[in-house]
Design a protein that fits this description.
This protein is mainly beta and 218 residues long. The chain is 0% helix and 43% strand. The strands form four sheets. A four-stranded antiparallel sheet has the order 1-2-3-4, with no helix packed on it. Strands 5-6-7-8 form a four-stranded antiparallel sheet, with no helix packed on it. The protein has a four-stranded antiparallel sheet with strand order 9-10-11-12, with no helix packed on it.
Length: 218
């Protein structure tokens, strides 16, 4: 894998291809295997922007020929996995706000993505916001949490809504029918329940402990 740092898998519907996004090193690694899981390709592609801009999330586009990469400033670029060329989309930078690096949820049909935005980070650390991500909590900015979701249409990459929450959150997951979002708030020992259709928070579940990540059973 090389020097990826705290990377994240980019899943595909087929078993012979998987990619890994490496935000700290500003790279994406393309990996192909054969039917016996023998490695056929392990290729490193450098993202064509400064490392401090960041790479917050990446998803495979339908058809498997492109990967959509959400930058830390909110801009979205599509990368062709064959030619490795990058193309702009309708989602442009939305500074000074930042998209936190995380596995942000998609709707079950893949038509929407819910990106967690941070609007209140310390501007003094602007140039290190993404370089510090993934390090021990005592080395990260204290405000490295998201305060709202912005909902994007993954076909047009235009914003179709904003969901503001009553507490800052770390991560989120959508249920199997796409009607609910669940956002983790470990500092408050809570999970936020969000109506994804009406785009508003409807409940807070007190669960104890520090819920940082959730998975929805099939």
């Amino acid at each position: 894998m090389g020097n990826c740092g705290p990377g994240r898998f980019i899943s595909y519907p087929t078993a012979d291809q998987f990619d890994v996004l490496c935000p700290r090193t500003n790279r994406i690694r393309l990996i192909n295997v054969d039917a016996d899981s023998r490695e056929l390709q392990n290729l490193d592609v450098v993202l064509p922007w400064e490392r401090r801009v960041g790479a917050a999330e990446a998803i495979a586009a339908p058809g498997g020929q492109e990967i959509a990469i959400v930058r830390g400033d909110g801009a979205v670029f599509q990368m062709n996995v064959v030619t490795h060329e990058f193309a702009e989309t309708s989602a442009h930078p939305d500074l000074p706000d930042r998209v936190l690096p995380a596995a942000w949820p998609n709707s079950p049909d893949g038509s929407k993505i819910y990106l967690g935005y941070n609007k209140n980070y310390d501007r003094h650390y602007d140039n290190r916001f993404y370089l510090d991500y993934g390090r021990p909590p005592n080395l990260r900015p204290n405000d490295a949490t998201a305060s709202e979701f912005r909902v994007l249409d993954t076909h047009t990459w235009r914003k179709i809504g904003t969901i503001r929450t009553k507490m800052p959150f770390w991560s989120a997951v959508t249920d199997n029918d796409g009607k609910m979002l669940y956002a983790m708030v470990p500092q408050k020992h809570s999970i936020l329940v969000i109506d994804a259709v009406k785009m508003r928070q409807i409940r807070i579940l007190k669960v104890g402990g520090a819920p940082a990540l959730a998975l929805v059973a099939p």
